[in-house]
Amino acid sequence: MPDNRYASWREFRIFVDFFRRGDHLNADMTGIFSPKFQLKSNITGQQFLAFAQSQAEADVCFINVFPTLPYYSYNVWMQGESAHPGLLQRAQALLTATGIDWNLSSTPRHNHANLCYGNFWVGTPAFWQAYVGGVLDPIAHFLETNPDDPEARAVFDAAPHTVEAPFLPFITERLFSTFLSLHPALRVVPFHDAGRDPLLHCTTEFRREVVCHMRSRVDQADASNSFTLELIQEQALFSRLAALYHNVHFQLHRHPHLVPEEVPLTRPGQVPS
């Protein structure tokens, strides 16, 4: 972008502009990855590229950089509302105003088969047309043409987060997994290897304890495609507790996914990392 008008849109703007230019038509599969890919995923770009190239029949391939989250969140919206309170209402209002008839409160389960945080995915031209063309581009058009509507203004409010950011990128990040779960006929291939053990990706000891506590029951529920209300409620509790612990912990310690220029200034009473 020649200017910084859309900085608050984060990678959402990059995806939309890329699609509008038709750049997704130039390869069998295409994706847009941030410079933090290796930092967050613990694999190289070449490793993921080789994996994607081996999946000739796939519509979309992805890697989830937070494999712990499905153990203490039923889907991306449970986790999102815990981490960024107010996100669900803003997201639903935005979709409704755009004319996308998803009921986010009824979003199905997100597990290792369809859960992707970070927008680390590559898709075919047809997938780009269906997802970016059918979901992200209409949202962008609504925001561009109705900037003063309350639904548009609300998604640019500051969201609770480790660094300063509006709600919009956290909303759009969660649309990918939602789209996959609502289109089960898609040929979706997640990246898996021994290094994807969720216990190796816990950013705090609290999360490690929660994963150990929940893992066997959640894996069984996923295998049988049967989640009890009690288990979902327990996930909701741990999702909120994990968010609260995360907020306190990373006021005192540097987050492993932050680069130096993103580290907030030390606040009064805060212990510098």
From TrEMBL:
Protein name, UniProt field: Uncharacterized protein
Superkingdom classification of source: Bacteria
Provenance organism: Hydrogenophaga aromaticivorans
